[in-house]
Design goal:
The protein has 116 residues and is α+β, with helices and mostly antiparallel strands. It has one domain. The chain contains three helices and six strands.
C-alpha cells in the first residue's frame, strides 16, 4: 500500500519522502508519515479535491479506529467512497484518502484499498 500511494502521488508531480510507513491492515491499508510542507499539502488538497473535515467526522473516526490512528490533528482533509481520483494504474482503487496535519509539523497520509 505505501508504495502504490507514493507512486500514485508521484504520477501527479507530488513527491513524498516518508519518514515512517505502517500498513497494519495486512497491507490493505495504512499510512505514511512525512514532515509538513505547506506546498505539498496544498498540492494534495488541490490535485485530489480534498475537503476539510472535523476529527469527529464519522467516516474519519471509524477509519482512524480501524487502523489504530490515535494522532492529534491540527487539520484533516480527505475524500472517501472510492474517489475516482484514487483509481490506480494497476486497476486497483483506494476506498479513501486522508491527509492529517499534526500540531508538531508532520503529515500523515492514510489510504486503504477498496474491496471488490
Amino acid at each position: 500500500m505505501p508504495r502504490d500511494l507514493t507512486d500514485h502521488l508521484e504520477a501527479r508531480g507530488i513527491i513524498i519522502q516518508p519518514t515512517l510507513t505502517n500498513a497494519p491492515l495486512s497491507q490493505r491499508g495504512g499510512f505514511l508519515v512525512t514532515r509538513y510542507d505547506a506546498q505539498i499539502a496544498a498540492k494534495l488538497i488541490s490535485a485530489f479535491g480534498l475537503k476539510q473535515i472535523q476529527e469527529d467526522d464519522i467516516g474519519w473516526a471509524l477509519r482512524a479506529k480501524t487502523i489504530g490512528a490515535n494522532i492529534a490533528a491540527k487539520e484533516i482533509w480527505g475524500v472517501s467512497e472510492r474517489p475516482s481520483q484514487f483509481k490506480l494504474k494497476n486497476g486497483g482503487q483506494f476506498e479513501y484518502f486522508y491527509l492529517l496535519v499534526t500540531p508538531d509539523g508532520e503529515m500523515y497520509l492514510f489510504a486503504e484499498y477498496a474491496y471488490g
